[in-house]
Design a protein that fits this description.
Layout (H helix, E strand, L loop, with lengths): L7 E5 L5 E6 L4 E4 L4 E4 L3 E7 L8 H14 L5 E7 L6 E6 L4 E7 L6 E4 L4 E5 L3 E6 L3 H6 L5 E6 L3 E7 L2 E6 L4 E4 L4 E5 L3 E6 L3 H6 L5 E6 L2 E6 L3 H13 L10 H8 L2
Antiparallel strand pairs: 1-2, 2-7, 3-6, 3-10, 4-7, 5-6, 8-13, 9-12, 9-16, 10-13, 11-12, 14-19, 15-18, 16-19, 17-18
């Protein structure tokens, strides 16, 4: 018997996705602040302290849960959505924050635990615990794009995470290794060994544009990768937003800016 609420869902869209959660009477879904899109009339929304799993006992237990969320860069509070009707299904819909895909993770089938990047969590069935996962190796914390602290999702219900661009799922066998840009990691199952490796070669150090380190993921387990990390997207937007126009210094310099609307 599962301890978490058993919710149904449907994912809509291609590049800008949203997930519709169907709740039976008294079922609850928890969601990250800012992900809510719309809901049926029979759903009651509440903001709670901590991760919303309901497992923390007493005031200090809730303080610990809230502190863990703060360490992963999230809010101290989480929002719950409960179907309060006596005998009717109700729906709540949550949207992805930027272009990409929503991944449904059945924690029951993934041995109860998935580790993901700090800002990946979108929503989950009530009972799923959102905690922190400390990376044990010093190099991972010093040089890894994810740092020492990542999120962990624990339980036996459904959880939803979001990632940028296209999502690639890989199943690594025992001892099989995958070397990945640290920002491209979305999530991986708890048996995956995660480490940071130095990129060798003087050319890579001097003129390479990919950074000096990449993540090494070693099986067995499942890995989810994203083609467009939000950090990469933000840096490219910033680059174009602050760069001088290509036509500057040419005969069409001023005219080009006028035509562009600047």
């Amino acid at each position: 018997m599962k301890n978490n609420h058993e919710i149904d869902y449907k994912i809509y869209g291609e590049e800008m996705q949203c997930v519709e959660i169907e709740l039976d009477p008294q079922e609850t879904v928890i969601a990250e602040s800012g992900s809510f899109m719309f809901m049926d009339e029979g759903i009651e929304m509440a903001t709670v302290f901590g991760d919303g799993s309901g497992r923390a006992e007493g005031f200090f237990g809730k303080i610990m849960d809230a502190g863990k969320r703060l360490l992963t860069g999230e809010s101290l509070f989480i929002t719950t959505f409960t179907n309060i009707t006596p005998a009717q299904k109700q729906r709540a819909t949550f949207a992805a924050p930027y272009a990409g895909k929503i991944i449904a993770l059945d924690l029951h089938q993934l041995n109860g635990k998935v580790i993901c990047q700090k800002d990946a969590f979108l929503c989950a069935a009530k009972g799923v615990q959102i905690g922190i996962e400390f990376q044990r190796k010093l190099g991972t914390g010093l040089f890894g794009g994810e740092g020492f602290i990542m999120q962990k999702l624990e339980g036996d219900g459904l959880a939803f995470v979001h990632a940028g661009g296209y999502i690639l799922e890989r199943e690594l066998q025992v001892g099989e290794t995958l070397r990945v840009d640290t920002g491209c990691i979305v999530a991986f199952t708890h048996r995956i060994d995660y480490d940071i490796q130095f990129i060798k070669g003087i050319n890579n150090m001097v003129v390479g544009c990919e950074g000096l380190f990449f993540a090494v993921l070693r099986g067995p387990g499942k890995v989810w990768l994203q083609s467009l990390p939000v950090s990469r997207l933000a840096s490219r937007i910033l680059q174009y937003g602050t760069a001088k126009g290509k036509e500057e210094g040419s005969i069409l310099g001023g005219l080009g800016r006028v035509l562009d609307g600047d």
